[in-house]
Amino acid sequence: MFDTLAKILNVKELRGKLLITFLLLVVFRLGSFIPTPGVNVSAITEFVASAQGAMGAVMSMADMFTGGALSSMAIFGLGIMPYITASIIFQLLTAIIPSLSRIAHEGATGRKKINQYVRSSTVALCLIQSGMIAWAMATSGEAGSSAFIAEGVSRWEFFFYVVLSLTAGTMFLMWLGEQIDEFGIGNGISLLIMAGILSRIPRAIYRLFQGADPTNSGSSISLGTIVLLVILFVAMTLAVVMITLGTRRVPIMQAKAVRGRKTYGGQRQFLPLKVNQANVIPIIFGQAIMQVLAGFVGAILGESMGVFFSPGSFWYTVFYIILILFFCYFYTAIQFNPNEIADNLKQGGMYIPGIRPGKRTADHLEKIMNRIALAGGVFLAIIAVVPQFISRGLNVDYDISGLLGGTGLLIVVGVALDVVQRIESYLLMRNYEGFGVAGGKLKGRRG
Q1: Helices 223-245/406-429 angle, 10° precision
Q2: Domain 214-447 has CATH 3.40.50.300
């Protein structure tokens, strides 16, 4: 371990990239503590802490991605999620709209155009979301008496400050992520999200040991519960790593070609198909729809019906699992194009043993992907609902059980593996051993 760290520090370029990445992440964390002008921070913090039901779930999820910036109404209160939302939207539109699909296949120029569309859409989403937040806070009380507005600030001034600060904060984070991409190591946007999620761990650990404090008469967490939580955390992390790196290797052969006295091709290779092709997208979409559904049912049919779709209830869990499975298949179908892969194999003179090139190959690949997509969807559903069962079964706070599954664990593991693989590639280029066993390469996710 220490020998590998020494080798990392010996590579000057890698050492510089790691330092730049660390400093830019520090800037991100510092900005999460700068309050938005004109906001009564104490009132915001109290409101977020007391939020219950669907609203509480929405606030908790948003606060997780922003690293606590939302609960303190900092300038990074929207986080990087508007950019992520815009990126996902254009991924879906690129697969549906032919004109965008043609632009995306124009190489670097097309990707640059799509990225510009994503940036413009991010600004629009930031203005809409920050405007809704500002309007909701400004109109929450009597005329001129909203508890969220700082003393001496009018409603229109408050609205202007909040919209401008939150929008500018998200655009700065987008720029920060691009700087990490160019000068640091790893995917900048993913690292910002991971830093926000990891920043909540100390608070969760504090609340865990606070609940187990023997001097506290109201403590309800025993030592056995803490040990069990640690074991579950290790087991869930290992499971996520295995599924994230898991692939179904489809054997392919290269056609032989005889030139003179030499024979070329004929090698046996493998086409890796990821088990979790959709990654964390189905959980994010499922959570968003269920939160909207819970709020809609509660508003239209009353609280007595809304409780059936509140987070943690039976029907909420059932529909949540159904949505995860649906979006897993839907997003996999968008990302994985068997016809394109079959054409590429045919043009490269490669084929699957026992399967004819062309349509038969595409049908065979689609059949395999449908099977492993089911396995990936079931795994995502288990990961998504585990925190709810642990929270109820062990009687611990959701902030604590949330570390054992859900969106946060999938993102942290995926980004960490991506960074390790990038560092490993630098070490292997310098003839150093990687992180694998006996110098073997760590195979799996590449981003």
Answers
A1: 60
A2: no
